[in-house]
Specification:
Layout lengths: L3 E8 L1 H5 L3 H10 L3 E8 L3 H7 L9 H8 L4 E9 L1 H9 L12 H5 L12 E3 L3 H11 L4
Antiparallel strand pairs: 1-3, 1-4, 2-3
């Protein structure tokens, strides 16, 4: 069985706004992963509703969708050996203040004291999530 996987990575609006998309891509490639697709997108309610479907009805759902619509998102499909686990390790803890130095969030993230954590990046958390999310963001891939 091959451990070559694909994952969806999003550089969220805070990362794009701060000019960090290139640094995130550099770290993905430096780790040895291949970029299979990269597109700067403006997400709409339908796409974000489907992407965050497991959070619908929770109090943070609409603020999260509003944040993700606040600017362009760099959508990336990366592939490589155990890329799902590897990118999540590279990204670091979801809370930027607690994220370890050397990770994307630990080195570049900021805690703005906001209800919705603006933590620069998203990475699929399982092969099933990756397949579903890639299908949403890159249906032709």
């Amino acid at each position: 069985m091959s451990d070559i996987q694909r994952t969806l990575i999003l550089v969220k609006p805070d990362g794009v706004r701060r000019g960090l998309a290139g640094e995130v891509l550099r770290r993905i490639e430096a780790k040895g992963y291949t970029l299979a697709a990269v597109e700067l997108r403006t997400a709409d309610d339908a796409l974000l509703g489907a992407h965050y479907e497991e959070h619908q009805g929770k109090p943070f759902f609409q603020p999260l969708v509003d944040f993700m619509k606040s600017g362009p998102v760099l959508a990336v499909v990366a592939e490589g050996h155990r890329v799902i686990e590897g990118f999540r390790s590279l990204a670091g803890s979801t809370e930027p203040t607690a994220a370890a130095p050397g990770t994307i969030r630990g080195d570049l993230g900021r805690d703005w004291g906001l209800a919705v954590v603006q933590n620069l990046v998203h990475g699929s958390d399982s092969p099933e999530s990756a397949e579903r999310e890639i299908g949403l963001w890159f249906p032709g891939l």
